[in-house]
Automatic annotation (TrEMBL):
Protein's UniProt name: CUB domain-containing protein
Keyword annotations from UniProtKB, A to Z: Disulfide bond, Signal
Keyword Iron carried by entry: no
Biological source species: Dermatophagoides pteronyssinus (European house dust mite)
PROSITE patterns to which the protein is assigned, alphabetical: CUB
Amino acid sequence: MNLSMLLVVIFLVISYDSRAEGQKSAITVTNNFINRTSFPWIHGISNLFTFYQAYRPCQTEFNTTGTCLAKSDCLARNGMAAGACVAGVTVCCDLKFTCGGRTDKNGTIFVNQKYPLADNMTNTCQITIEKQPNVCQLRLDFDEFTLAQPDENGQCTTDSFMIRTSVGERLPILCGENPGQHLYIDVGSGFINSNPVVLSVVTNGAIGGDLERRWRIKINMVPCDSLNMAPSGCLQYFRSPSGTVQSFNYGRLIPNRARYLSNLRYTACIRTEENFCGIKWRTEQPNSFSWGWPVNQSDQTRKNATVLAFAGGHCNSDDYIGIDQATYEDNNPLALDEDRFCGLGLMHHGQVFSRSKPFQLKVRSNNDHRLNGKQSQQGFDLHFTQLPCVL
Ligand SMILES: *[C@@H]1O[C@H](CO)[C@@H](O)[C@H](O)[C@H]1NC(C)=O
Ligand SMILES: *[C@@H]1O[C@H](CO)[C@@H](O)[C@H](O)[C@H]1NC(C)=O
Ligand SMILES: *[C@@H]1O[C@H](CO)[C@@H](O)[C@H](O)[C@H]1NC(C)=O
Ligand SMILES: *[C@@H]1O[C@H](CO)[C@@H](O)[C@H](O)[C@H]1NC(C)=O
Ligand SMILES: *[C@@H]1O[C@H](CO)[C@@H](O)[C@H](O)[C@H]1NC(C)=O
Ligand SMILES: *[C@@H]1O[C@H](CO)[C@@H](O)[C@H](O)[C@H]1NC(C)=O
Ligand SMILES: [Ca+2]
């Protein structure tokens, strides 16, 4: 570059800068990483740089869309530096809603601090959700959710996901693997935002195994007049003629550990479709029901029996799944109704029928997990199909 070209460049920079002074709003916010007082001569060049490089979209090293920002600016906004825009000046910042965040926006996505990387720290990560006016419920969708497994008592003592609200019923504390699960939180009715909801994830060190602690939770606000509102008392709500309901942390067998959680008391509800009168529940796989150890059954009977499926009073002493007035055969007057199911199978053929409305699956577990752990009980993975009314 010869001298005259250099002079032209400098002239352009300075004239650009004086023009830019007129458009203060666009420029001054970006010019925060070079001290104008000590380096007045660099002023114009820095403005030109930041104008072109800051707030420009960029591709992060995880192939997501980021924003070019000064590193300090990125960290101040809870973002993560994921690649460079201009080496040493701006980073490609992945803006995330994570620990310490507060939101009143619909559709906010809450992720772990290092997302999309895993977190292995001891930490308390807490966010606050302030509802918009005329919102009665929140719906949380776990796009990704991996925390440490529950302990031998079925409790979330290593990691725990907790929901704090001042209205509604007590919500279960969750841990383990829950991708694809959802739940509803009552936030009260009315226009006054007096009931912020706090979500917190408490984590303890590395979780070991091949698990990576990571979460991505979508938070939707459900308006009070919406048909999407879950009926009161329903932690989960399924709005389709057929679908799948799994217990929290359902997954592959862990020897001598129960995967499902203890102290559960919640209901999964199915919206009754028009002209449907009954519901069929069946196990998604032949052995995808293992919940509660029936009274007086020894290990020896387990070894002898192909399936240990129990109902009614046999399920009173431990954990059970409640389906009102359910039988093993539809429209068979000789088949007795039962309300509680437990053991290592769901009735005789892994299925039950109910014509009792509303369609609900009640999930109950007590605080004694010893026998459940001994039987390596995994929980349930059940498929439901609504049945048309018989004329
Ligand atoms: C910029 O430099 C001047 C003089 O060196 C100093 O007084 C001032 O505090 C600095 N400003 C910032 C924001 O660092
Ligand atoms: C990002 O995308 C490029 C192609 O667009 C691909 O080669 C690369 O493997 C991707 N990186 C990650 C981390 O997914
Ligand atoms: C946690 O992750 C970092 C990298 O993300 C790694 O350097 C460190 O060794 C990990 N710590 C544990 C205890 O696994
Ligand atoms: C939030 O977004 C969902 C999905 O887009 C929508 O159904 C719902 O009505 C929205 N809630 C509010 C309060 O606008
Ligand atoms: C369980 O066993 C005890 C003693 O062996 C007996 O008294 C009790 O009636 C049994 N309960 C049931 C439901 O069979
Ligand atoms: C289980 O089977 C063995 C022989 O195969 C028999 O001796 C035992 O009595 C059976 N136990 C029960 C509880 O049925
Ligand atoms: Ca139990």
